[in-house]
Write a structure and sequence with these properties.
219 residues, mainly alpha, Flavocytochrome C3, Chain A, domain 2, 2 domains, globular
Length: 219
């Protein structure tokens, strides 16, 4: 069976060949490459800026200035909250909640956000293998990612910084009830629809001890 060959300028749709010259596709491709390269460049540098100045730093960084608070926090349920996701932990509570006590929830994306710090965000929790220091509800879960204020407004060489200035840079102090309710709500499988969160009691019993600071920073 003979094969018909398309003859340039004859078999194409009338006017199409004349509308788009051969060199036009080359120009179009070049422009597309330039735009793609520029987008990559700007995005990459924008991300580096966020990573350097607005990301999570981890509790070890907070410990440098607040060793007592860190030691007290390490004894709280918030510090060990990631452990609840391990097989066999809190078996009775999991059964009552309709969860499998023998299952490993340490990589379950439905559970991880409220049992880690900064999951899915710059400098935050990635996995227990890659970022073990970000497991649990750490300092920055309540006080905001330290990259926006630690080392700049709050620094060892600025011991008399003012809290109001740090707050302007991103410090969450004091943490509000809204911060806690992101996870302490009726969507948790461990509580019912009639769950009531007692913010004052949680602050008193569930957080680290509040020690008198060496320097006054105002409110």
């Amino acid at each position: 069976m003979p094969t018909e060959r398309i003859q340039p300028g004859k078999d194409l749709e009338p006017g199409l060949h004349e509308q788009i010259p051969h060199f036009g596709w080359m120009v179009f491709g070049f422009i597309a490459l330039v735009i793609a390269g520029l987008t990559f460049y700007l995005t990459r540098h924008s991300y580096e800026h966020v990573a350097a100045h607005d990301g999570y730093l981890g509790p070890g960084k907070c410990k440098e200035c607040h060793p007592k608070q860190h030691e007290s926090w390490a004894k709280t349920r918030m510090a060990s909250s990631f452990g609840v996701l391990r097989p066999g932990e809190k078996a009775q509570e999991k059964q009552l909640a309709g969860l499998d006590p023998a299952a490993d929830y340490t990589h379950d994306t439905a559970c991880i956000p409220c049992h880690t710090t900064g999951y899915g965000l710059v400098g935050g929790f990635v996995s227990i293998e890659q970022t073990p220091d970000m497991a649990g509800v750490t300092c920055e879960s309540c006080h905001g990612p330290g990259g926006s204020y630690v080392g700049t407004v709050m620094a060892l060489d600025k011991p008399e910084f003012q809290t109001v200035e740090a707050r302007k840079s991103g410090l969450v102090y004091p943490p509000t009830e809204a911060v806690c309710r992101v996870c302490h709500n009726s969507r948790s499988p461990f509580v019912g629809a009639d769950y009531k969160f007692d913010f004052a009691e949680r602050v008193r019993l569930g957080t680290h001890e509040h020690f008198k600071l060496k320097y006054e920073h105002g409110r």
